[in-house]
Write a structure and sequence with these properties.
The complex is a heterodimer. By secondary structure, chain A is an alpha+beta fold. Helices cover 63% and strands 9% of the residues of chain A. In chain A, helix 4 packs antiparallel against helix 5. Classes of the chains: A alpha+beta, B mainly alpha.
């Protein structure tokens, strides 16, 4: 009952104390509240801290920003200006950390970009070198094949000219400026006749072979006589003899366009018509195998 | 009159104490407070560094903020509000550093873009050369 008594006496005082305490508690509850804006800074920092690639790049700046945010979150009581100042500082620190992280990130990527660029350069050079090598080897093989074909051409030419020489030798032809001159002696023809004697045709057969072998060679056939008989008659006779050789050749498959027969009569003797043997030398048909226009020296070699 | 005497003595003591307190207070306020020289210096240096980094090209707003805050800090020193002066000086410093950091980041990204452009140009060139073959 003492207590009741006491209550009775001291209730107004107790109430005053309780009120004071509750006010104090209330003011204590509001006091630790962080300054305005600090929550935003905290969330900005958290975002940076949880970034998968940037977070670990800048540990020092991260620590400093974290410390500044912690300071900004601390209660400042009624000092609003201090709270604002701390939030500003923390915000700038977080921004600095973000910028530094971006810088570091760019620097890290640079190594990769450098490798990519170097690889690209290397590829370009390799490609260039390959192309140069390919071109060089192509040129080389061209040179080689040209050389080979030149060599084989030369060999063929040598073989050919050797072969031709053999044939020329077989014809017993004489190389002159006009071409190869093959003299068919008078033995082929009876005196005053233009028909070819049989048996003399071996020489003409060789000529046919030769002309078949060298289709680019054309032939002049010139008939000649001694001075027995009239000029006119000799001209006619020489023409006939030349024609007769031509017709023999055409019969053996040589095209007549390649053959030109002329009668020169007694105008071009190779010996004086004083003796029988000299006159016999003058009675002849000369077959001139003309040099082809493309290789004028082939026959003389 | 012992009671009166006692009151008188207490009164005098009180006056003395009050006077002493007043003197102490006056003494405390009398000296001009120290200017935040170090903080102002830091801000000045940070701004100079940012200018050297060409922050005026890449982070002009931040650099401008930093200069503005330093100016306000100096004005606060004149007004002998040293607490405000120091805060402004520190804000100036951190803002100048942010200007530098953003400038660096911008430059770094630009370098990367240039590099990757070079690489891509080479690759493209090669592909064209490849097509020609």
């Amino acid at each position: 009952m003492n207590i009741l008594n006491m209550n009775h006496v001291r209730v107004p005082r107790m109430l005053a104390v309780a009120a004071a305490v509750s006010i104090a508690v209330a003011s204590c509850a509001t006091a630790p509240q962080s300054p305005e804006g600090s929550a935003e800074v905290r969330s900005k920092l958290s975002e940076l801290q949880s970034h998968p690639t940037l977070a670990n790049k800048i540990p020092v700046e991260m620590r400093e920003a974290e410390a500044a945010v912690v300071v900004a979150e601390a209660s400042v009581g009624k000092d609003v200006a201090l709270g604002e100042h701390r939030v500003y500082m923390a915000d700038q620190m977080v921004e600095i950390a973000t910028a530094r992280a971006a810088t570091r990130d760019a620097e890290d990527q640079r190594a990769m970009l450098g490798q990519k660029r170097d690889q690209a350069r290397l590829d370009a050079r390799t490609r260039e070198a390959d192309r140069a090598r390919r071109e060089a080897s192509m040129a080389q093989s061209e040179v080689e094949s040209a050389r080979a074909s030149a060599a084989s051409n030369e060999a063929a030419a040598v073989a050919k000219s050797k072969e031709m020489q053999q044939q020329i030798d077989a014809l017993q032809a004489e190389a002159t400026d006009r071409g190869l001159v093959l003299t068919l002696g008078d033995v082929l023809f009876a005196t005053g006749k233009s028909d070819l004697k049989s048996g003399g045709n071996k020489t003409l057969d060789k000529l046919v072979t030769f002309l078949n072998e060298y289709p680019d060679r054309n032939v002049d056939i010139e008939g000649h006589t001694d001075d027995v008989g009239s000029l006119e008659m000799n001209q006619t006779l020489s023409q006939h003899r030349a024609d007769s050789v031509k017709s023999y050749l055409t019969k053996n498959g040589i095209k007549s366009v390649r053959l030109e027969a002329k009668g020169l009569g007694e105008t071009q003797p190779v010996a004086d018509n004083d003796t029988d043997s000299a006159r016999q030398q003058n009675r002849r048909v000369e077959v001139i195998i003309k040099n082809p226009p493309s290789e004028p020296t082939a026959s003389t070699n | 009159m012992p009671v009166l005497k006692r009151i008188n003595r207490m009164c005098r003591l009180f006056v003395a104490a009050t006077l002493a307190g007043a003197v102490l207070l006056v003494a405390g306020c009398a000296g001009t407070p120290m200017a935040p020289t170090a903080a102002l210096n830091d801000a000045e240096l940070a701004i100079q560094a940012a200018e050297k980094d060409e922050a005026s090209l890449h982070a002009a707003a931040e650099l401008d903020d930093a200069r503005q805050k330093l100016k306000l800090a100096e004005q606060a020193v004149v007004k002998e509000d040293m607490v405000l002066a120091e805060r402004l000086a520190n804000e100036s410093t951190v803002t100048a550093r942010l200007a530098s950091a953003r400038t660096e980041a911008t430059k770094a990204v630009a370098i990367n873009q240039e590099m990757s452009r070079t690489a891509e140009a080479l690759i493209e060139e090669m592909q064209r050369a490849g097509d020609r073959q």
